[in-house]
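Subject: for your reference before the review

Hello V.,

The reviewers asked for a structural picture of the protein, and I figured it would be easier to keep everything in one thread rather than splitting it across files. Below is the amino acid sequence we used in the manuscript, unchanged from the supplementary table.
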Amino acid sequence: MKILLVTDAPPPPALVAGGGQRTDLVIRALSEFAEVHLLLICWKSQAEAYQKVGPFEALWPGRFAGCVELKEPLLPKPLRALSKVLTRKQKHVAHEIYREPLRYLPHPEVAGPAREILLKGGYDLVFGRFLRSPAVGGFLDAQSPVPIIQDVDDVDSQIMRVKLPRSSLVYNRLTWKWRWPRVERAIAQAIQPAKEVFFVNPVDQIRFPGANSSILPNIPHHFAVEGVGEALEDAGNDYAPTLLFVGRIATTGNNQGVDHFVKHVWPLVRLRVENARLRIVGSGMADRDRAKWSHVPGVDLVGFVEDLKPEYARAHVSICPVYWGGGSKIKIVESMSYGRVVVAAPHAFEAYSGLATHRKEIWHAEDDAKFAEGCIRLLTDAPFRQQMAAAARELVLREFTYDKFKKTVQRAALEAVRPSGKL
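And here is what came back from the structure prediction:
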């Protein structure tokens, strides 16, 4: 059986962030019973960035099907016909206005070459990672000769929905308000032909009831190699009461969330727990971040560390102040696997709302006051913290193992091709 995996988020080493890691988990699961080839459909700038790591054929020898680049601005059909007479500025303005809905429709510069790769390769199944690449490549077409499974991951329209009220820029709020319903309609239409659609968020699944969908949660990449691992003992009195944030600081959602926490929540925590510490761990911490946060009492700017286990060991509680986007939500599962309770912002908690309960496995911080309340309670009430930590660990072992992830992917793939008999 041959599977063509179509994405703009290739596996490591080209993309070591969470999107690339999830792609690698999918490839690992499918490769147990099929030959999996990778087709990249991405912007030219993305392709150039990925190739800085090495030539594609060298990164994935024998598994690289090709790379189709998006070079032209995304324009609606009427403007596309006028592209030769439009100025560069006019194209850019049109691209900014129309690009989001058009990312979910076949693009003439991409769909032709992509279909040629599909037919020449003799593939039995297409697996789309993220929605944009399979959509512009024409794979989400009811007339496609090959069935497709679509892993949507985080839904772009929902990211806009969450960002909309938080943006202070009038231009952003107006354009997002215009784009949001159009993107949502485009997504709903694009996923219809898929044999099965994977979401990571139960709320997203509810918003698109017309799709044959399942939840495929994000899990830490190391679960596939090392398993969930052993829980750590409670930090107890060995360290000062410590909150831990782990995530890539250069990611906008993470950066803005940490900044908001430091400004608006951390002072409330320190009023009640004077010796509390906040450790910020993660790569991509810019000089401006250090300048903003280094003078704040009780904040330790750790930056990148090779081994996170010692950081979790000395922490009493983890925080996830992510209010939009993907960000470090996957670190919620990682934290719980180590036996650390997470205090999570509403957007971060939403991804686990169908499985976790407030004050049982995760503390749902609905606003700044509730965020501070959760941190204070968990830092000062050891029995309550340990009870939640045990429940959180059980949730990970029940719902977020690589074995369960793998079986979900494999079941969907086999069911998608079963009518054709190509197992």
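For the response letter, the relevant points are probably these. The two ends are 6 Å apart (CA to CA). The chain is about 45% helix and 15% strand.

Happy to draft the paragraph if you're swamped.

O.
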